[in-house]
Amino acid sequence: MTWNSNQPKSQLSRRQFFQFGTGIVGAGSLTAWLGTGALAQSLDSSARQPQDNLLAAASDHAHPTSDLSPEAALRQLVEGNQRFVAAKRLNPHEDVARLTEVAAGQTPFAAILSCADSRVVPEIVFDQGIGDLFIVRVAGNIAVTEDVASEEYAVGVLGVPLLVVLGHAKCGAVKAALEGGELPGVIESLVFAIQPAIAASEGQPGDRLTNAVKANVRLQMQRLQSSSVIASALQQGKLKIVGAYYDLETGTVSLLS
Ligand SMILES: [Zn+2]
User: Is residue 3 one of the residues assigned to a domain?
Assistant: First the structure.
């Protein structure tokens, strides 16, 4: 992957990430995974040593990891999407034997940060089954603290070789950020996390919303890469991160360059 140095850096402070993230995802499940102490520490920038926490968690669980290379993992997703588009799904890993297998431990081969939109269902779109994909779904596929922490868990503990940020056509969260205006409840927190992508894609030729969705994918990828756990795995060649765009009408997932 190559990166446009003009892309905006994250403008959210850790406190803002925390406020928005907890409103969207909640901290309970992470507490269960990592322990209250580890979660509290990961949110404290002055004492932040997420890699150490994760390595400790990894040694506690002694997780086996996927034996796929990052390239092979990406090929498996691309081929799964091709089967889906061609209406030739294999529906793998949905039987009782698979349930029993993964009950003993999970070794997903890809982690995905996807929108919560009901029309974007990664297991179906990529023709994968139980235990194959570690998926974080949040409106606008934004990488706020809990989402980054979840993907850090996938990378640092479960050892996934591939991380995908999946945006999609007609994303309501990106559209809301584009249009502005008042929103009920705490929905504005989503808009806040997407706004830099709106600015970055302004003036580009083509469809305004599509451009903003793709810019948002790149923005959230940058936020994920600012994680020391994810950056370290990338640097060691253990992980590949890609951005992708899902077309609602055809079911096709295109990789962003
Ligand atoms: Zn969406």
Answer: no
Specify the amino acid at residue 245: Y
Q: What is the CATH number of the domain that holds 134?
A: 3.40.1050.10
Q: What tens digit of pLDDT does each residue of 186-200 get?
A: 999 999 999 999 999
The torsion defined by the Cα of 43, 47, 48 and 54, in degrees rounded to 10, comes to: -100
Ligand 1 centre from 172 Cα, in Å? Answer: 5
Task: Report angle CA 138, 4, 204 to the nearest 5 degrees.
Answer: 80
Cα–Cα distance for residue pair 68/76, rounded to 1 Å? 9
Distance 120 CA to ligand 1 centre (A): 8
163 DSSP β-pair partners: 111, 241
Q: Residue 199 has which token pair?
A: 């600015």
**Which pLDDT tens digit goes with each residue over 140-170?**
999 999 999 999 999 999 999 999 999 999 9
Is 9 inside any structural domain? no
Tell me if 212 sits within 8 A of 197, measured CB to CB: yes
Number of structural domains found in the chain? 1
Residue 29 C-alpha to ligand 1 middle, in angstroms?
23
Contact 243, 256 (CB under 8 A): yes
Surrounding residues of ion ligand 1, Cβ less than 5 A: 115, 117, 171
Q: Give CA–CA dist 192/252, Å, rounded.
A: 28
Element (DSSP H or E) covering residue 239: none
Q: Confirm whether 68 is domain-assigned.
A: yes
- Domain presence at residue 74: yes
CA 36 from centroid of its chain's CA atoms: 23
Residue 37 alpha carbon to ligand 1 centre in Å: 33
Stated pTM of the model: 0.78
Question: Which residue segment(s) compose the domain that 217 sits in?
Answer: 14-255
